[in-house]
Inverse folding.
């Protein structure tokens, strides 16, 4: 049986050298000004042998943030810093797209200069704000006004334009995991009574307006969309996920975007097979895969490419290790994120631990 993991794949207008995708991974190694750092240049360059790198979630505006020291793509300095990264990846013949992000209600006033987070509706999520000490509960967000929604669409469009200036090969919209686009889509978080809420058609309106604005900047062949039909994070819920995500896939299919990336349940109870069929384009599967499971998904045509997160953190040369059936480095979850006590430090050498120091195979 021919191995498919290492076969090239045309993804819209982007040709991948293999079907191993680096999943978007929030690592919080940017500066307090949301600037990508030099250690991020090396980190991404180390992993350039993946067929496609999808960056960590990258905020589209200063009021879109929900985590300390996640990078942005809204100003000139950020564009310049990201250009170092895309140049380094391209120098190693890699492909990299920027994941565009607005967290919506998954934030806190301490991260927003005292302002309330925003959302489709003023519904407080359960849980604690990530990586804040001492732990803080999420707060009830403020429901967005109509003019603000239009402004956020423009912010995504500008971020997409900035990503092009930064040298990316394309962009992916973060429409998953309970962040703003997902909050508008699912009826557990969207209780609006205007044209952006109520019916499924209305709940789709904002995500699709954002998507169309981004396509206008890039062309559909360099735009992807990230979904999480598991509805299992950040207090998300929908009364009919199959219907909701099926309709979303119909709209994405109409636009002929480059790919859909799905963090979904594999096997019984999962709806990926249905969603993939409706979409009809390149479908990237992700959720705790190993080499064997990933290859099976490709062979059974349940996915066209496969994404790895934790394994890619610990194995910058994951593709080569897969090719050689070599042992894999063991990930250390304690270093996935910097110690919160070191946030705002100017010494980024400490941030390299668990970030740049996983060993490559000996040549």
């Amino acid at each position: 049986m021919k191995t498919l993991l290492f076969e090239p794949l045309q993804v819209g207008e982007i040709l991948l050298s293999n079907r191993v995708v680096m999943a978007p991974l929030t690592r919080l190694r940017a500066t307090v000004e949301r600037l990508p750092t030099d250690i991020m240049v090396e980190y991404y360059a180390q992993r350039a042998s993946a067929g496609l790198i999808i960056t960590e979630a990258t905020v589209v505006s200063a009021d879109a943030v929900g985590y300390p020291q996640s990078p942005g793509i809204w100003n000139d300095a950020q564009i310049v810093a990201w250009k170092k990264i895309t140049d380094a990846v391209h120098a190693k013949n890699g492909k990299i797209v920027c994941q565009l992000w607005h967290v919506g209600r998954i934030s806190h006033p301490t991260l927003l200069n005292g302002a309330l987070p925003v959302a489709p509706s003023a519904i407080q999520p359960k849980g604690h704000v990530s990586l804040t000490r001492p732990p803080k509960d999420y707060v009830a967000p403020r429901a967005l006004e109509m003019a603000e929604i239009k402004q956020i669409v423009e912010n995504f469009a500008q971020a997409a334009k900035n990503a092009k200036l930064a040298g990316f090969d394309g962009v992916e919209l973060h429409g998953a995991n309970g962040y703003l686009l997902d909050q508008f889509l699912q009826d557990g978080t969207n209780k609006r009574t205007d044209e952006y809420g109520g019916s499924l058609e209305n709940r789709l309106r904002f995500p699709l307006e954002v998507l169309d604005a981004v396509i206008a900047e890039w062309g559909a062949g360099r735009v992807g969309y990230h979904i999480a039909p598991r509805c299992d994070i950040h207090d998300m819920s929908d009364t009919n996920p199959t219907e909701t995500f099926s309709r979303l896939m119909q709209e994405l299919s109409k636009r002929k975007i480059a790919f859909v990336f799905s963090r979904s349940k594999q096997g019984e109870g999962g709806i990926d097979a249905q969603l993939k069929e409706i979409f009809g384009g390149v479908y990237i599967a992700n959720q705790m895969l190993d080499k064997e499971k990933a290859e099976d998904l490709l062979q059974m045509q349940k996915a066209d490419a496969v994404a790895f997160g934790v394994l890619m953190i610990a194995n910058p040369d994951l593709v080569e290790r897969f090719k050689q059936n070599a042992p894999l480095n063991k990930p250390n979850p304690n270093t996935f994120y910097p110690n919160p006590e070191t946030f705002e430090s100017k010494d980024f050498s400490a941030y390299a631990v668990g970030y740049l120091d996983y060993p490559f195979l000996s040549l």
Observations:
- The radius of gyration is 19 Å.
